[in-house]
Amino acid sequence: MRKKTGLGQKKELDAQLNLTPFIDLLSTCVCFLLITAVWIEIGTVEVKQSHGTSAAQEKKETFDLDLVFKDPTQMNVNLKKNGKRVQGLKVEGETFEALMANLNETLISQVLTFKKKSIEIATATVTPRSTVDYGSLISTLDVLRKNKIVNIGVLTASGN
Amino acid sequence: MILNQSMVAADGFEKHLVNRKRKKHWGLKAAGFTLMLTSMVDMFSMLVVFLLQTFSSSPEILVTKGVELPNSITPAQVREAPVLAISSDGFLYLDQEKVGKTEDISKKPNGLLKKLNVIKKNWAKSHTTPFTGEINLQADKEIQSTVVAQIMGILTSSQFQSIELAVVGHR
């Protein structure tokens, strides 16, 4: 150990870190962070209910998409231009998961490339049925958002 | 016989006993362990850094009891807004306060509309910017999608047009 010499009193130059309070502090920090940490990521899916308001009428010459559930394994996909239907497709699947896979394929191959041209969807609306649960509705919105269709509205079915 | 004495003048058996006693001592010394403080402090520091990094800075919304949120692969960040919850027990909650039965409110939404108007008035008092119409909607994944659509219709009629559907993110 090096010591200061020449001034009569000898002082230690090497400081020693007191580890006990340091470990105490670290363990308290770990406990606090473990307790307060949020392990489930809660997110949101944004829905803009612009249907029937002036916001929907702003743009011209754009395509709109209309998804109407018949039941959990069947839905109609309508492509509209200026409010008029230009293409109507029926999407089916043996299960709901198969329906979602088919919907994704239909959107890529027949909707977003309409008449061999890539188009943009301004707004999309989903009309659910009472037989379709909320979790399935979110999965449908997921498929739309995955295909970069973000202006989505949910309509109330007239007949259920 | 004293075992710790020098082995110079000892016979073979005594030497054996002295060696055995020494070996026992060595064994005892080996059994005692020292805590590796450096490694422990390293581990603690790494844990603290990891936990601090995972500490979310985004606003967290409280999930209402009895609501199992659906999963989503395209979640966006939660924004601070009033929370309307439709639970699996058939009741509707606005900011954790029970409003009434969902079925009844779908037919007669006056109670809910009044409470939504109070939120709008409070917004106008505390903000100078125009009303954004943002609301977080939590609904149980098992309930009918038409029930959610009806509630969304009520919200839209009350100028809450930017509805954030709460989901559990699975990227």
List keywords for this structure.
heterodimer; A: 160 residues; alpha/beta; Nucleotidyltransferase, domain 5; five-stranded mixed sheet; two-stranded antiparallel sheet; elongated; B: 171 residues; 43% helix
SS element count, helices of chain B? 5
CATH fold node name of the largest domain in chain B:
Nucleotidyltransferase, domain 5
What gap, in angstroms, lies between the N and C termini of chain B? Answer: 78 Å
CATH superfamily of the domain at 54-154 in chain A: ATPase, nucleotide binding domain
Estimate the strand proportion of chain A.
25-35%
The biggest sheet of chain A amounts to: 5 strands, mixed
Radius of gyration of chain A: 30 Å
| Strand order, largest beta sheet of chain A | 4-3-2-7-8
The total count of helices of chain A amounts to 3
User: Which fold name corresponds to the CATH topology of the domain at 54-154 in chain A?
Assistant: Nucleotidyltransferase, domain 5
CATH architecture of the largest domain in chain B: 2-Layer Sandwich
Most extensive interface, residues per chain?
A-B, 47 and 52 residues
Helix content of chain A: 25-40%
| Structural class determined from secondary elements of chain A | alpha/beta
Mean pLDDT of chain B: 83
CATH class of the largest domain in chain B: Alpha Beta
